Amino acid sequence: MSSRGQQQPSTAAHPVRVQSMTKEYPNGKIAVEEVSFELSPGTFLVLLGPSGSGKTTMLRCLAGIERMSAGRIDIGGRAVAAPGTHLPPEQRELAMVFQDYALWPHLCARDNVAFALKRRGVRREEARWRAEALLGRLGIGALCDRFPSELSGGEQQRVGLARALIGDTGLLLCDEPLSNLDAALREQMRIEISSLVREAGTTTIYITHDQAEAFALADRIGVLERGHLVQLAEPETIYAAPATPFVARFTGLAGELAVRIVGRTPTGAVEVQLSAGTSPTPLRATPGAGLEQHAGDALLLVRPAAVSLVAPDGTGCQLFARVTDVAFRGVGYEHAVVLADGTPLNGIFSPRRARWGENVGVALQPSGCLAFPAGAVASATAVGR
Amino acid sequence: MATLQQHLPLPAALKPPEGGGPPNNGETPPGRRGLARLRQDPQLVARGGLAAFWALLAALIVLPCACFLVLAVSPRLFGQGPQWFTLSYLRQVFTGTTAVSLVDSLWVSAAAAGIGLLVGVPIAWLSNRTLLPGRRFVAGAMWLVLLLPSWLPASGWERLVQPDGVMYRIGLNFPFVTSTIMGPFGVVLLLGLRCVPFSYLAITAALRGLGQEYEDAARTHGASRITSLRLLVPILAPAITSAIAIGFAESVSDFGVAATLAYRANFPLATYQLFADVNGFPPSFPGAAAIGWLLVGSVAVPLALQARALRGRAYRVLSGRSRAAVRRRLSRGGLIASLTVVIGYFAVALGVPGFGALSSSVLSDYGASLRPTLVNYRAVFNNSGLSGPLERSLIYGLIAATVTVALGFLCANLLSRRASASGTLLDFLLLAAVALPGVVFGAGYIFAYNLPALSHVGLDLYQTTTLLVVAYVASSMPTNARVLVGAVSQVDASLRNAARAHGASATRAWARGVLPAISRPVLMAWLLTFSGILLELPLSQLLYAPGSPPASVAIEDNLGNYHFGVGTAQAVVAVAIAFTVVGLALMLFRLVTPAGWRHVGEGVNE
Amino acid sequence: MHAHAQASPDTRRPRGRSVLAGAAVTTAVLAGVQATATAQRTPKAAVVPLVVYSAQGYDKLETQDFSKRYHIPVQLNDNSTGPLLTEIEASKNNPKWGLLWVDGATAFAELDDQHLLLRGFEPNVKWDSLGKAALPADKSYVPTGVTLMAIMAYNKQRVAHPPTSWKALLSPKWKGQVGMDDPSQSGPTYPFIAGMMQDLGGIAQGKAYFSKLKANGLVVNPTNGPTLAALASGQINLALVQSSAGIGAYFSDHNIAVKYLNPVTILPSVIGIDAKAPAQEQKEAELFANYVLSRAGQKVMKTGDPTGDSLYYPVINGIAPRGILPPLSGVKTQSINPYTWGPRENTINSWFDSSIVK
What we know:
By secondary structure, chain A is an alpha+beta fold. In chain A, about 20% of the residues lie in helices and about 35% in strands. Chain A has two domains: about 15-245, Rossmann fold; about 255-375, no CATH class. Chain A has eight helices and 21 strands. Chain A is globular and about 75 Å long. Mean pLDDT of chain A is about 85; it is low at about 1-10 and about 380-385. Chain B is globular. In chain B, helix 6 runs parallel beside helix 17 (about 330-360) and helix 24 (about 495-500) crosses helix 25. By secondary structure, chain B is mostly helical. Chain C is of the alpha/beta class. The relative contact order of chain C is 0.18. Mean pLDDT of chain C is about 85; it is low at about 1-45. Classes of the chains: A alpha+beta, B mainly alpha, C alpha/beta. The interface between B and C is large, with 59 and 73 residues.
């Protein structure tokens, strides 16, 4: 399960080790606190978090653009930042793709890309030739002579990607490279980044606030909350066993239900009953962190995939609901419903179109229902890798 | 201005969208069809506006300057000589003292522009990209340097270091300082000090828009700090060359230093020769015009440089997306060096001449001793008759500065869209106008607007306040437009479009989307023009309506009649009033404008 | 735009600035003029504002008093001589001035040669010898007073025995101690140089004299002010300046005294009238010249700028100079012919600039 893309780790790919990275700004704001993780060469790590979670700061500390307040970074087995050491970006053997492309406006596409070969001591002619070739592979070979202002956003980001890849550095940093692109282009670019990066085999750290993008790209996902790394794991683990309600919420929920714990099954699942109102049968759920000994009030976090619509009088019906929205999604329909007690559930897929306002039954699959102690709503402590 | 505005071109983004007007359903009354068509054809409006704008520029700047300059080859046109056509005056320029002064002017101006860049760029970088203590005061102090008329620091220095100057009166006996300052070095230094704010403003505007990401991108792709700086220079090239161009043109045309320090140092500059030609008796306007031609020609050099730097491309590096730059913490050594540069600059540019002027204003006219006295100031307030002229100049300044900024803003808009031929032409026109000293405008206005033919049709403009104010506008507009172009070119079209997209009318789009972004530079440009006009001398002398002298003429009258103490005290009072107005305006700006306006362009992490 | 508010049909030029002469006040003003008809010619037409270009220190008071007495509005262009002449030359196709009043006759001779001055007017006064010497044959301008150029100012405390002749200035005793003005900056200095040339027997002899002065360490300052400042500070000990400035310096520094070296060139203050001005304005200008030379006018001239331009020698009988002025008895004064020396001004000045100043 662990590494879908690690077919052929590049010889140049670097391992990365971050220990206790902390960044405090002069105004006292702590952007990153005590973050540690380790990446084996060729891993594609996505740092996922909302804005303000510290992911950009982390990336800039990794790049050497920002100086850490404390901690240590090793890239390729070499300490690039440690107490008393701060290697400037150009000595860290890395490359970066920027959210705003950051193409130098006075250089044409080819020269922007070729610039990154200077550190390799490549002759000017060869550098330009190689830049052209790479731009050709990215489908914009005809635009080599254009200046950034004459390129579309997607084209600019392809140039930015080419610039980051051509140097064949051991570490690639991506700062939300898709966020300025429109949806269709974003998906296309995601595939290009994914395939090119894996082909190169380079270690990649990619930041985004879009969980779908993260799940699609990552070998491993690190979820950041207010400067803390709250979970670092494979995408499947993050989805199935989020470490905190925050991780669960940020990686996609249909809704949240206030419940009471009424029992436990021998398989380790818990049995819960809605706090307000009742369900025909107790609901089963997977216990989250902190719930091992917990009894009483709890919070049930429900993944969209765990919810299915059934006939209100049919078997398996656990809750009653009314349909508030139906969206056609091609292969089926996505519904929003509201439960009898007013709790909304969104993103419920069904091959059948329910009518707006129709009364339906809801069935919940225990593996996608995550129970957390009711008090654990608040934030996080560092969980580490 | 209301009617004027209607004839001026709308910035591209403010033009009504094509076909955006109501469809013509044939109900338009016949008499108003033309107007309705105009309303519905924005292109026609824009074209008409552009034509009107150029006509106005022609009347304000081109015609008067041309009337003056044409005398170099055809003195007889305005009765200034017997020949209808001659090249002898132009030939004269290349011989003797005039040729020497011209060469001196050129190298001095180039050196001054260089000093401006050398000092201005580091200060701009320090105050925008580092945590330099006191960086908040740098911008204000820079404007202060600009606001001082150039003769004031020059004569301040002179009063200080001249053989009988304040320096000697207080017992500092340093003849080498005197000989250094009162020589080519001093001239270059003083002109260079004045070029610094132009470099500072241009580079600051560019740096503010230049997000950190260009530098980050260079560093992360293997460029050292030096290499990445080299990479940034071309991005800043438009700002750098524009700073050189304006510094060079301002220095070439400067008269304040030429007439004071340079003259006393026996180092005649071209503008002084031009002035001597005009001021001699009988005045040789053709000779002065010939010098004028070469001054205009000399700005071709920096313009060519600028064109080369841009190579026909304009890159709008400044989008709404740029990441705020990070301020760098200076090392201990860096801090000391930086503070030395910044404080040293302001001490030399402001402190020394300020001390010179102030100390001389409290000394008696020919006093050998150092007996400070306020008798001169008492005279200013009691019986100098300065209040009337000062009041007049204040009003002229208010009106002229407002019109100037409005026009300068439109020019800056055209300039920032460099692709067009009219933009290039305008660029040259404005820079050439900067290179011509005020006396050329003054005499040109007399030639152009005192034609007997105009009098015959009852259009008597010469010696009216109207013409004086118009001339103020014309002479300050070129510099004004050049100062504003940095700010205007930062306004991404998307800012204007965004406002329109959110339902604002063209005017509101401008007021909401554009004005906030440029409010501070516009205010500064206004203040610059205002304080320049408050103490403007050559135009005032030649064009003022008899009986209504402006402040500078009243002051000069005292100095001319050897009442130095009172004259200098008057000048100090006038400058103090200018600074008071500037201070009040800045305070008002702070109080009245929404907080967000002031943050524009300050998107830098502290 | 306030266009031409023309006052009368025989005003040849529409005058933009004649707004003041509104029809409503015309009658009253006219009556006023007639009532105080010290000026013999009673204007037949309505008054127009008299435009006075002047560089005199007392001009403001003089024109105010004139206006009050004769109810003729005066618009004063109070400027240095340089800009005034520049304006006149630049606007000579369509002049807008009525009367020019500055020091030095050479500029007037030049204007007269260009037919810009009204000829044949002489005020009805009794000239003294200075006045007679300054009056031109074609009566194209009128002297109103006389200063001397140059006289020698010195510091009594430092110089006990000042030199007594122009020639003595060349002695090694005064090496590096003599200062004078630059003729291209200071209008009155050219008549001084011309006067020296005339006295020494020609241009060449004059040039030789100034070259020797330079060899003896002559210090050239732009104008009277800086030259006197140099004297006051002790940078020089003998200052060759205009009499009014040199005598006036006493008020700032009581150690400064003056001495007249023979011969001293007279520098008349002069009024000229615009040949192209409307007839009415010319009449008012003549009235003004008469007023200036009247007792009342002279009183204002003598008191209007007590430390500067008021320190002049009158040109008419019966008017005494201010008490501080040394008597002219025993002093040899000379005039230069402005029609001869005027046209040489530019060439001599540029010679001075390139040979003496540098």
